[in-house]
Specification:
8-stranded mixed sheet, alpha/beta, 598 residues, 7-stranded mixed sheet, elongated, 18 helices
Length: 598
Amino acid sequence: MAAPVPLHPRGARSAPLVFTQGAHPPYAIRWYGATSLFGHFRNFVASAIASESVDTRDWMRPLDPGEMLDGLTRVLGLPRRATLAESIGRPLWIDWVADTGDDRDVSQAVGRMLLSEYAVDEDGAALALPRGDVLLFGGDTAYPVATADEIHRRLVQPWNELLAELGDARPRALLGIPGNHDWYDGLDGFGRFFRRRPATHDVAASRPPESRQSPKRPRTVGVVARELHLDEVGTAVRMFGNAARALRAFWRGANVKRRGRLALRGYEPVQESSYWALPLAPGLDLWGVDRQLGRLDFRQRGYFQARRRALGDDAAIWFVAPDPAIAFGEPWEFGRKMLAACGLSLERDRILYQCGDMHQYERRGRGASLHVIAGGGGAFLHGTRIVADPEPAACAYPDGAASRRLALEVPLKLLLGRAGYLVHMAAALLASLELAVGWHSWRRLLATSLLATTAIAWALYAIAGHQRAHPRRVLALALPFAAALGLLPMILSVALHRAAHVVPLLGRDAVVTLVYAFVAALLFGSFLALCALGGLEMQQVFTVLGHPGFKHFVRMRVSPDGTVDAWVIGKDDPLKSDGPWLIDRWTWRAKGEAVGPR
């Protein structure tokens, strides 16, 4: 085993101006590219199937909390006591990571951080932070769709390479909850990774077979090829090819050969469903919930409400959720509804609310409760709140200043196609339709442009106002951008018609379509950037950047009295040698004074 890595506070050091992209496939998803389009298509199909009441959870058998405890004590080789902390007889260590499995190299860099052991200075004495006994995933195991193949390529394979190097044979437990990208595959990939092995209960089954040859690292693809998006085209072709083979097999009544169970070397899954409850320490339960078909279904509501009654109102809950209850300083509907479905409240109860989904780190206190977002497991970065916050977060990573600087980069990067060319293609199609309908008729062209303006205004409002927190401000910003985007093809056409002698060799409509495609991308990027700078919408703007930085995980120590100590460990640029650093340090208690930074 390698020596513990000395861990020092990050402090107020400046973030790097340039960040390193991965050099080996699979690469980070371009969210305005063909691969992302396939992911959204899978989401549409999965949602359509689920709307016909084909809910994967119908076949699940959620384990009783006592059965969950039996599974963990078996995997960890512990005597069975009333809670896991009592069974282990020492502080229990849990590693938390969420939103994993995007860029392969970044994913492996996060794995290297998580699988390391650290040493920190605590009250003048050295304290060891060993690797967790339990590895807890907080949703969205891989992107763009968490199929078994994508989980294998983007997470399991790069992490297993590291685990083979470590050679640590001590068994550890694996827990997880699904996010929306896990549900895009109907939980098939999720189940192959997180569902416990049938019947045998053999911990050794979680270890991949040894290979006489070291795994081959994927071939490096040059910068030029990547800037031309050749890797994007190849990935999209492969995914569409897989879908076509599945459709052909369905049409012929044949079976499709799928990847078998997924396994991280040395980690054993213990759950039987996408939601679960675990007696963690006296007076403290660990709950994992799943709402990714819109809300907690009646089975979960009954499961958690019954557990709440058995525990009593004084018990504390460590609530692991796929969505936040507070995001960017404002109430978040999905998390609030999950808490209400379980009969819980951040303000009334004692809750450690932990989630991913937002690819950032943020900690906020609410009375005796603590709300922690830690979604830095490998997916593209979501910046934190930029505008002034009446109740500032206790810690945010990256901070508002770094998030503001990154948001300002969005218009240019979208214009240059760094996020893909779907926006350009959609704009070109829109311009072509306007010009085709209005051919040789300025009245028809004007009417078509006004109709397009109305549709664009609705689309921009839907993009930036989906939380409906600031509807009037969103609408006020959307209308001028919609007018510019809707009327610009007509304006360009008129301008070129009057200056036809300037471009005699080119067709007017072709020039209008090409120019409009890039100007529209710039305008749309400016709209997203202003939404972020005004505090209206913070998610869509950062999808453009596909930013690989500010990755982190949380190492937690659970004491037998229910005290949870946490060290947030991260790197600004995961592919550089600088770091990792201690990003944040906090303590939350199931009894007594609940919240306290260290």
